[in-house]
From TrEMBL:
Any single Gene Ontology cellular-component annotation: apoplast
Post-translational modification: Contains at least one intrachain disulfide bond essential for its enzymatic activity.
Subcellular location: Secreted, Cell wall; Secreted, Extracellular space, Apoplast
Species lineage: Eukaryota, Viridiplantae, Streptophyta, Embryophyta, Tracheophyta
Name of the molecule in the record: Xyloglucan endotransglucosylase/hydrolase
Top-level class of the enzyme under EC nomenclature: transferase
Xref: Pfam families: Glyco_hydro_16, XET_C
Residue positions the entry lists as glycosylated: N61
GH16 domain residues: 1-167
Organism per entry: Glycine max
Function: Catalyzes xyloglucan endohydrolysis (XEH) and/or endotransglycosylation (XET). Cleaves and religates xyloglucan polymers, an essential constituent of the primary cell wall, and thereby participates in cell wall construction of growing tissues.
EC number: 2.4.1.207
Length: 230
């Protein structure tokens, strides 16, 4: 990523009800070390103890419960930076676009071009930022019933197998420092979100965010992570 000042990764995803209404898995779109590759059929895997990782995950749920979108960021093998959201739509009815915008200044998570999360570069505070390791795209279904639904109380109902999710229109766009920004990334060329995007971000975080590690004082009794205190 050293040679690029903006990378845009997006994919359209349709979940099936069976993959979510039980506690099957996380349906996860995440960036991981190595060259960018789209491989939607492989299981998620980690390569090395100090990997970088940027996660979009759908947690399993019971029928009738809201759908939970789980995000996380690992730097040098360390995560614990979760934010979770209810969606304002049913992800099993239509395809929706899930995007990650990477810049040296920040990482933006978007759903249908609406920003839901911004992770700012806090290297000045001693917080590693995922910028030195090449990355690969993975998309997968995997069993996470030890924690994903109601803290692991609800287990996977394997009688509902097979479990499926559908992916299409994967797109990875890298903009070099010397190139111009195309329309697909123009609104994110600036180092900060514009006023409209900030309003949309506040709307999502006010009405749909259900967990933010930066607010979890019980989890961090010795003090919140440094990036949460800026």
């Amino acid at each position: 990523m050293k040679e690029h000042d903006l990378s845009c990764l997006q994919i359209r995803l349709l979940l099936t009800a069976s993959s979510l209404e039980i506690n099957l898995c996380q349906t996860q779109l995440y960036i991981h070390e190595n060259a960018i590759v789209a491989n939607p059929q492989k299981q998620l895997s980690s390569q090395g103890p100090t990997h970088d990782e940027i996660d979009f995950e759908f947690l399993g749920n019971l029928s009738g419960d809201p759908y939970i979108l789980h995000t996380n960021i690992f730097t040098q093998g360390k995560g614990n930076r979760e934010q979770q959201f209810y969606l304002w739509f049913d992800p099993t009815r239509n395809f929706h676009t899930y995007s990650i915008i990477w810049k040296p200044q920040h990482i933006i998570f978007l759903v249908d071009n609406t920003p839901i999360r911004v992770f700012k570069n806090a290297e000045s505070l001693g917080v590693p930022f995922p910028k030195n390791q090449p990355m690969r795209i993975y998309s997968s279904l995997w069993n996470a019933d030890d924690w994903a639904t109601r803290g692991g109380l609800v287990k996977t109902d394997w009688s509902k197998a097979p479990f499926t999710a559908y992916y299409r229109n994967f797109k990875a766009t890298e903009f070099s420092l010397k190139s111009s920004i195309s329309n697909s990334g123009a609104e994110y060329e600036a180092n900060e979100l514009d006023s409209y995007s900030r309003r949309r971000l506040r709307w999502v975080q006010k009405y749909f965010m259900i967990y933010n590690y930066c607010s979890d004082l019980k989890r961090f009794p010795q003090g919140l992570p440094a990036e949460c205190r800026r």
